[in-house]
Amino acid sequence: MTGSECPSVKPLKIGDIEIAHPVLLAPMSGVTDAPFRRLAASLGAGLVISEMTASDDLVNGRPMSLLRCEASGIGPHVVQLAGCEAHWMAEGARIAEASGADIIDINMGCPARHVTGGQSGSALMRDLDHAMRLIEATIAAVKVPVTLKMRLGWDERSLNAPELARRAEAAGVRMITVHGRTRCQFYKGRADWGAVRSVRDAIDIPLVVNGDIASFEQAGAALKMSGADAVMVGRGAQGQPWLPGQIGRRLQTGIVESAPPLAAQLKYIRTLHDEVCRHYGLRIGLRHARKHLGWALEVAARCSRAKAPTLTRWRERILTSDDAIHVHRSLQDAFDDFAWSAAA
Predict the structure, then answer these.
(1) Alpha helices (H) along the chain
(2) Would you call 110 a catalytic residue per the annotation?
(3) pTM score
(4) Model confidence over 2-61: pLDDT tens digits?
(5) Considering 6, 69, 84, 110, which one is annotated as catalytic?
């Protein structure tokens, strides 16, 4: 798909907050902490959103919840909250706003069993009256814009996203994001971008389509099929935090960008590794960084056409190390090896 074939994009605003371009980084538990969001934002993501935080944990001051809500320092600060009680959602939103949040996002889309088992996340789509009580309490508690992320419904027999979106807009929600699957699908099959159009037909506020968007071509198709105003990139940004920025720039300008050179990719993952270690402390940070290291190695190997045994060897060496200096040295050696593969 070329830039001219892609649906035209218009400025995206959430309340009075103007977003740089309509390609957002999705909130991902255990992934979109402040260091990762900061890197993605510095590489051009239109908006980055914190990983989901339980509202009651935030109110009770749990250290990990406070870390999840830490600002990235680049662009509007969006905190995503989850919960099942109006009181905690309201109090959590107040704390997030007082801590600098420019936007509060409500999670009604997470399919994880430990979340839905507590009647949070996408479980709330089974009881829209209760979902609305949480939305109304959150909006009443803060002055900043409130947005909402959801799925198509709980299952194929209850595709109630249009009704929830319509009611949420009437209550004062300023933007809706829809992942094109039901909760019961989890991440199986393919996201149904066309099904999101029923939400577009139900609301006038900005709509974001999410699910299986990992390329410019997929972003263009998702926008066209859903009628949405923006796309949200989730798993596609793992190992390639530059992707939301690249897609956004191409939507605006039509200019095609390839993946960054291996030297730049190495710089990004080293920076992320060091910031994650500082963010969590060295002992915990080394463990948290491993997922990012693994994804970055996979992307670099793919870009360089390195053979599978080469990637496996470097993954084993780097992802089992408990020494930050050794990790740095091994990353340099791995990327040098990948560069030789690219030149061969």
Answers:
(1) 34-42, 55-59, 63-68, 86-98, 113-116, 128-141, 161-171, 197-200, 216-226, 243-253, 262-280, 282-304, 308-319, 324-343
(2) yes
(3) 0.93
(4) 544 555 677 799 999 999 899 999 999 999 999 999 999 999 999 999 999 999 999 999
(5) 110
